Amino acid sequence: MVEAIRFRDDDTHEEPAVSIEAFLDQSNATAVRIEAGEDARLLLPLLDRLALVEIDFPAFGDGRGYSAAQILREAGYNGELRASGDVLVDQIAYMRRCGFDAFAPDAPIDAKVMDEALGRYDEVYQATTDDRAPIWKLRHG
């Protein structure tokens, strides 16, 4: 098993994540797993119960998980948001911008390569949940 990558200071959440269906049917779960194509908006009324949301990326080209992360962060979720599955090093910077703060990739990611990728660009082009001002706004107010 590949070691998880975290950008959080709190303790790692050890409770296994349950499916959305199982989470909605019980009152004691604090971790949920969103599979590709499932609607993250089902969780919005219950965000205060969640400590971990794990979003599956079954293939690196499947971008539905980015939307789920954005929906949850914009709704005020501030717990751990973990991308799992086919997560590649060149996606981590974009995933971080959508609100992911933990990663459980299927294959190991070299920490040095990841740090270089995360520091490669000082400016961004789009606004998102990380509150970084896009370059066009910096140039034109």
Question: What would you say about this model in short?
Answer:
With 141 residues, the chain is of the alpha/beta class. It has helices at residues 20-24, 64-74, 92-98, 111-118, 135-140; strands spanning 5-6, 18-19, 31-34, 52-57, 80-85, 102-105.
Question: What is the element string, with H for helices and E for strands?
Answer: EEHEEHEHEHH
Largest β sheet strand count, sense and barrel closure: 6 strands, mixed
Count the DSSP helices: 5
Query: What is the top-level CATH class?
Result: Alpha Beta
Please give the radius of gyration in angstroms.
15 Å
Identify the strand order in the major beta sheet: 1-6-5-4-3-2
CATH architecture name: 3-Layer(aba) Sandwich
CATH topology grouping: Rossmann fold
What does this structure look like?
- There is one protein chain.
- With 141 residues, the chain is an alpha/beta fold.
- The chain contains five helices and six strands; from the N terminus they run ββαββαβαβαα.
- It has a six-stranded mixed beta sheet with strand order 1-6-5-4-3-2.
- β2 (18-19), α1 (20-24) and β3 (31-34) form a beta-alpha-beta unit.
- The protein is globular and about 50 Å long.
